Amino acid sequence: MMHRLLARAMRARAAPLRQGARNASHGGADAHKYSESVTPIEPSPMYSYAATGMGAVMWFWILWRAKHDLPHLLGFEHPWDHLHEHGDEEHH
């Protein structure tokens, strides 16, 4: 019995691994069976409006941060460029 298990393990290790065909992106032969029978569930208007509002807030935040931080990130402005603009009239 142990000899058979060892022989099977050796054959399995020696044989090249074969990958079966995957039809996830192309559908395969019977893809038409499932695409016609499954209908997507429409979200309620509340979820659609909430998603649109959250997307608008997200883009507002991204553009706001880009307006204020992009020159610093790209190297056009440096933190030490504006040291004397804080109202100190006293020059050292």
Automatic annotation (TrEMBL):
Top-rank taxon: Eukaryota
UniProt-listed InterPro entries: NDUFB2_animal, NDUFB2_plant/fungi
GO terms under cellular component: mitochondrial inner membrane; respiratory chain complex I
Region (Disordered): 16-36
Pfam families xrefs: NADH_B2 (PF14813)
Designated name of the protein: Uncharacterized protein
Source organism (scientific name): Salpingoeca rosetta (strain ATCC 50818 / BSB-021)
